[in-house]
Amino acid sequence: MKMTMMRTTSKIIYKAGIKNFGFFILLALISFGCNSEEKLTADQIVTKAIETHGGIENWKEVKQVSFDKETTLLLEDGSIQIKTEQFQLFQFKPQLFAKIEWEMNGEDHLMIYEDGKVSKRVNDSIITSTQDLDRAESAVFAAQYVISQPFDLLNENVTLTYLGVEEIEDKQAHIIAVSYDGDDNNSDKWSYYVDVETFEIVANKVELTDHTSWVENLTFDTVTDFKFNAHRKSYRLNEAGEKTYLRAEYFYTNFSVQY
Fold first, then answer.
1. Any idea where the domains of the chain sit in the sequence?
2. How many angstroms from the chain centroid is the CA of residue 157?
3. Positions in the chain whose pLDDT score sits under 50
């Protein structure tokens, strides 16, 4: 009788041990899965984002990108400050060439970047002011920066820092801080927000010397081999990181890619 009870007790303990062991194995696997996701590096996240948006190998083969861009700038009271429709073209090979043209207030504007320098024309007048040309060059480089993301984020002069996960609206997004060789205290500070499931770039934050902007990428264009931004909204943020007002809205259409 005692022997039977001991055998029965041993079986119960053994079964309980197996169940507990299985439970701990399950916990370990779940924990391992979570930790594996959490341990993605900034470079790995950006690499996945690049693949989602068209792939680095495809981007390396691109010779030229062109598109139309509609920009609406708004004042704090919601009124329209200015609205423009631009044609933008960027040729990457054999060297950078850019053309941006638009009409405003009955005047035709044209900016060209070629052979390492920028030129600007309004109607038939050639702009010679150093200040105006500096602004034109900054505008060209800013436009080229926007269209080249996220593909240029793995360049040698870029440092990526992973800042964790944040909830944006109903999405979870990885936060990647981006800095560049030669940056100083007055340089723009960029952060990219990457959807944890789709690895799309869903937002950007840029801290400038006089304000901080929050840019939401609302829809994407997939007509070409790439997933380009199609509709974006830019908000001004206060010191607490809260939206204060809609500063700009952008629409991108008629994408063309040449290899």
1. 42-258
2. 17
3. 1-19, 21, 23-37
164's CB contacts (< 8 A; 6+ apart) are: 174, 175
42-258 CATH pick, 2.60.120.620, 3.40.190.10, 2.50.20.10, 3.40.30.10: 2.50.20.10
Radius of gyration of the chain (CA): 26
The pLDDT value recorded for residue 25 is: 44
- Alpha carbon dihedral 33, 192, 149, 72, in 10-degree steps, equals 140
Cα–Cα distance, 92 to 100 (Å, whole number) = 15
Residue 166, phi-psi category: left (phi > 0), alpha (psi -120 to 50), beta (remainder): beta
Q: How many residues does the chain have?
A: 259
Q: What is the pLDDT of residue 39?
A: 84
Tokens of 69: 């861009």
